[in-house]
Design a protein that fits this description.
With 66 residues, the protein is mainly alpha-helical. 53% of the residues lie in helices and 9% in strands. The radius of gyration is 11 Å and the shape is globular. The N and C termini lie close together (5 Å).
Length: 66
Protein backbone atom coordinates (compact mmCIF):
# COMPACT_ATOMS: atom_id res chain seq x y z
CA UNK A 1 0.00 0.00 0.00
CA UNK A 2 1.03 3.57 -0.61
CA UNK A 3 0.10 6.79 1.14
CA UNK A 4 -1.23 9.98 -0.40
CA UNK A 5 -1.06 13.38 1.30
CA UNK A 6 -3.26 15.23 -1.21
CA UNK A 7 -5.77 15.91 1.58
CA UNK A 8 -3.00 17.64 3.56
CA UNK A 9 -2.20 20.05 0.73
CA UNK A 10 -5.90 20.84 0.21
CA UNK A 11 -6.31 21.50 3.95
CA UNK A 12 -3.31 23.84 3.91
CA UNK A 13 -4.90 25.83 1.10
CA UNK A 14 -8.22 25.98 2.97
CA UNK A 15 -6.46 27.23 6.11
CA UNK A 16 -4.34 29.68 4.08
CA UNK A 17 -1.13 28.17 5.41
CA UNK A 18 2.05 27.69 3.40
CA UNK A 19 4.28 24.62 3.52
CA UNK A 20 7.10 26.60 5.19
CA UNK A 21 4.65 27.79 7.86
CA UNK A 22 3.55 24.22 8.48
CA UNK A 23 7.16 23.07 8.66
CA UNK A 24 7.94 25.70 11.28
CA UNK A 25 4.81 25.31 13.40
CA UNK A 26 4.91 21.48 13.40
CA UNK A 27 8.71 21.45 13.87
CA UNK A 28 9.32 19.39 10.73
CA UNK A 29 12.70 18.94 9.10
CA UNK A 30 13.15 19.86 5.44
CA UNK A 31 13.68 16.15 4.72
CA UNK A 32 10.32 15.29 6.27
CA UNK A 33 8.55 17.89 4.16
CA UNK A 34 10.25 16.41 1.09
CA UNK A 35 8.96 12.95 2.06
CA UNK A 36 5.44 14.35 2.37
CA UNK A 37 5.75 15.99 -1.06
CA UNK A 38 6.82 12.65 -2.54
CA UNK A 39 4.02 10.68 -0.80
CA UNK A 40 6.54 8.67 1.20
CA UNK A 41 5.99 7.22 4.66
CA UNK A 42 6.60 9.45 7.68
CA UNK A 43 6.34 8.57 11.36
CA UNK A 44 3.13 8.65 13.35
CA UNK A 45 4.76 11.32 15.52
CA UNK A 46 5.08 13.61 12.48
CA UNK A 47 1.45 13.03 11.51
CA UNK A 48 0.19 13.77 15.00
CA UNK A 49 2.23 17.00 15.17
CA UNK A 50 0.73 18.10 11.86
CA UNK A 51 -2.77 17.25 13.11
CA UNK A 52 -2.19 19.24 16.29
CA UNK A 53 -1.16 22.32 14.29
CA UNK A 54 -4.03 22.00 11.81
CA UNK A 55 -6.55 20.92 14.48
CA UNK A 56 -7.66 17.89 12.51
CA UNK A 57 -7.62 14.09 12.53
CA UNK A 58 -5.09 11.88 10.72
CA UNK A 59 -7.75 10.81 8.22
CA UNK A 60 -8.09 14.47 7.23
CA UNK A 61 -4.49 14.63 5.96
CA UNK A 62 -3.54 11.18 4.67
CA UNK A 63 -5.15 8.27 2.89
CA UNK A 64 -3.90 4.88 1.74
CA UNK A 65 -3.91 3.97 -1.94
CA UNK A 66 -3.72 0.49 -3.45
Amino acid sequence: MQVDYKKLWILLIEKKMSKPQLRQEANLSPATLTKLNKNEYVSMDVLTRICKVLECDIGDIVETVR
